[in-house]
UniProtKB/TrEMBL annotation:
The entry's keywords: TPR repeat
Residues in TPR repeats: 101-134, 498-531, 532-565, 566-599, 668-701
The protein's name in its UniProt record: Cell division cycle protein-like protein
SMART domains reported for this sequence: TPR
UniProt key word Ligase: no
PROSITE patterns: TPR, TPR_REGION
Region Disordered: start-end pairs: 341-361
Amino acid sequence: MENLLLNSVEKNLSQFMFTNAIFLCQRLLAQFPSEVNLQLLARCYLSNSQAYSAYYILKGSKMPQSRYLFAFSCFKLDLLGEAETALLPSKEYIEEVPGGAAGHYLLGLIYRYAGRKNSSIQQFRMALSLDPLCWEAYGELCSLGAAEEASTVFSNVSSHCLQKTCVAQKVSFSEGAIIDQLTDSDKASKDARLWQTEDAPGESQQDLKIKQFGPDIPPDTYRQLNNSSHTNVWDLKTPSPVLSQVLDAPPPLLYKNMRRPAVEGLMSVHGESRRKYVSEEMSAEVAEESGRRRSARIAARKKIPISQSFGKDSQWLHLSPSESNYVPSLSSMIGKCKIQSSKEATTSDQSISDRGSCVNDDEYSNPNGSSADRFSLVSGISEVLNLLKILGDGHRHLLMYNCQEALLVYQKLSQKQYNTHWVLMQVGKAYFELQDYFNADSVFTLVHQHCSLYRPASISMLLFCFSDFLSLVLKHLKEEMRLGYLAQELISVDRLSPETWCAVGNCYSLRKDHETALKMFQRAIQLNERFTYAHTLCGHEFAALEEFEYAERCYRRALSIDTRHYNAWYGLGMTYLHLEKYEFAQNQFQMALQINPRSSVIMCYSGIALHESKRNDEALKMMEKAIIADTKNPLPKYYKANILANLGDYHKAKKVLEELKDCAPQESSVHALLGKIYKQLKLYDKAVLHFGTALDLNPSPSDAAKIKAYMERLIVPDELETEENL
């Protein structure tokens, strides 16, 4: 009954029938109360997003796996203190952090959300040292700006660690499967025989024993089996190497046949059965070869091919120099491993029949397998680590905002890996940070098409990709219709996703409906209070409504969640710039530049703050850096010309603006500034021409009024103009 319920619960979990799994697991726990079954029920609750239920049933549990599940439940409920207490060693349980790499990763997340950056970095590094394939830990280190180079993290040390882990898991799985299957087979056979004979009259208990188990069973066997029939399957007296992984693997199946199942590697565990098998083969060989002379039999045995006689080292004898340096793919090596295993099995059977009692038991008990298995394992690990090195380098460069380097790294990937959703999203983000919105739009559109083809498996990727970036790209490109269509599509996919409401808010923000956009972003925050970008977008909308106090609060809240969110530092700087707190603004812009040192926009506004603080030389140097960082950005060139004009250097300012006019001919502010400079140079005809061009380009009403005022005062002497301004 217990095994049947266990199998059903695991099957329901794998098929996402969570409520049915909860119902069956409750029946299981009521009939067979144990902490392991309690853990299974907690897994069911967590899978069904009922963290509170898992929290209450696991509270006070002492087993390591129970502590890990309890800590995970606390983390979901935002009970960071209790989660940390459950994971850390204490007087009650002095073991290490439960869950291994996953436990350290969870503890790192807890420390990060609690604002303990150094402790979180330590835990993420510990998780990577225990499991080099814990990619999320490396991603968190990249987000915190503390990641080492990928070639250092995924190095030979990681390869040796993975080899040890894979070998240990292989031995643990094979030995645990043998023990479990033998125990369950014996129990099933015993139950079947009891069912057949329990009502047979006139038979004694000893007769029943002999009938059920045969005359060769030792006297104490029946007592042991009888005791085991009332024992929980997880409390076997035989130590099993897989008990620590019991929650991750489904329980063994019941075998209803009367014979024991044929298990690979059975000989290596049970020496008696193996020797019996060898003796049977020898007896068959003797009966077959009794009619031949001894010399003929020896000659027949000497005709073994060299590829079989050399055993596990023979494969290296037939490799050409080119093949010896070739590292095959993981899938091809798996196929080769299967073929090689079948060949070795045939060879070993022939060797057993030929050598008889001289067979060495160590060949079957070797946990590392043959050299082909070892080569397959090493080559597979090497391929995986090489792939992670490329992905890790690209991801680290991207989160350090070295976007050009990230794009170059991702180009090293194969076509299959490059065209995956995750890599394409990273490429799109890189173009977005470079302010290359057209290329970013092309990449994200390609991802959108892929997600539309595989919608059931890609909803989360669709939301993640478009909420943060595609909606912002469309907003910058002023694609109002496409942005509205995207918002409607996301609502149809998942109305309860915070990313959806951010996309809707960006749509309203593009329409200059800032109040409605603010409501959408606040809705996103209600769905996920830790969604950093939603707080930043709220700050932008408050700033657009000139409610700078509320905007500052939103930016501060975003920074409390993620201190490396440079957009919030930039928003704070812009807020202080509008409030004419130029020193404060300069400090915020410097914080943003420490995180993203290649942002031309942040450099430009930092230069403006320096100029308003009367630090003109530093402001000009900052504008030069901004121009070098992005030659396509017209903003730093315009403000450089503005600073030069305010300093009275009209000829240099005119030269900069003439170059800018060719790059951005439709900017009314450029022509308006050129008109002011030509007025100061007393070139009134050119001044009137540029003022008229600026008015034709539909400037804002306030700018249009200023341009008309300049045109009216073209022939007024500078002294009178100064008096009028006073």
